[in-house]
Amino acid sequence: MPPAAPSSPQAARTILVEALIRTGEEDRDAFRTVYRLTSAKLFGICLRICEDRQGAEDVLHDVYLTIWHRAGAYQPGRASPISWLATIARNRAIDWRRRHGRARTAPVEAADAMPDPAAAQDEALIADEQRARLHDCLETIEARQRGAIRSAFFGGLTYAELAAAQAVPLGTMKSWVRRGLLALRGCLDGE
User: Fold this and answer.
1) What pLDDT was estimated at residue 118?
2) How many folded domains does the chain comprise?
3) CB of 177 within 8 A of CB of 148?
4) Pseudo-torsion of CA 171, 151, 43, 37, nearest 10°?
5) Do residues 57 and 147 both lie within one domain?
6) What is the CA radius of gyration of the chain?
7) DSSP readout, the chain?
8) In terms of domains, do 16 and 94 share one?
9) Are 142 and 180 in contact (CB under 8 A)?
10) Can you tell me the distance from the alpha carbon of 89 to that of 60, in angstroms, rounded to the nearest whole number?
């Protein structure tokens, strides 16, 4: 029987950090906890980017293999656990889309395709806290950087797609995103 849901976003984050650290030590029970706390969110990211349910399921499998092998490299002081995990999922999904030659089409409503639309309480608490912090910090950075970050990380667009949409060189787009992420990180670390 899984443990009771954490009572606060901070408690949920602490549980996830501890589970990731123990997963890095090859603790299978901790890995199950990481999966239980994050699979719905990471599947949503994969589905939104892949725009193909079977592809998203395959990518999610690859994501958790990567987490199992790389959890030892996770550093709690550098990134929130869900951000670290979401980055892995996003990168794997974009790689899948590139391999399969999929062009961006209409957005998929990931929530409609979720296996269990009722998110677990601990996942909802973590998501609410992080969404509010991220939104507040996003508003503090330059508009073009903010737009590029939103399109890349929330919309699943690649740097090349962003550069084409904004009619700027690829290097310029990468610089905008990088500077924006540095500013965002500074804001998030400042709290």
Assistant:
1) 47
2) 2
3) yes
4) 100
5) no
6) 17
7) -PPPPPSSHHHHHHHHHHHHHHHHTT-HHHHHHHHHHHHHHHHHHHHHHH--HHHHHHHHHHHHHHHHHHGGG--TTTS-HHHHHHHHHHHHHHHHHHHTTPPP-SPP-HHHH-SS-S--HHHHHHHHHHHHHHHHHHTTS-HHHHHHHIIIIIT---HHHHHHHHT--HHHHHHHHHHHHHHHHHHHHT-
8) yes
9) yes
10) 7
Q: Which domain holds residue 190?
A: 139-191
Class of residue 22 by CB neighbours under 10 A (exposed 0-12, middle 13-18, buried 19+): middle
> What is the per-residue pLDDT for 68?
93
State both tokens at 10.
Answer: 């901070």
Shared domain for 96 and 144, answered yes or no, is no
Joined tokens for residue 91: 């990168």
Residues 88 and 7 in one domain: yes
Residues 92 and 172 grouped into a single domain = no
Per-residue pLDDT of the chain (191 residues; tens, 9 = 90+): 455 555 567 787 889 999 999 999 999 999 999 999 999 999 999 999 998 899 999 999 999 999 999 998 888 888 788 888 998 999 999 999 988 875 555 454 544 444 554 445 555 666 667 677 777 788 888 888 888 888 887 777 888 888 888 899 999 988 888 888 888 888 877 65
Closest CA to 21 of 89, 81, 83, 63: 81
CATH number at residue 83: 1.10.1740.10
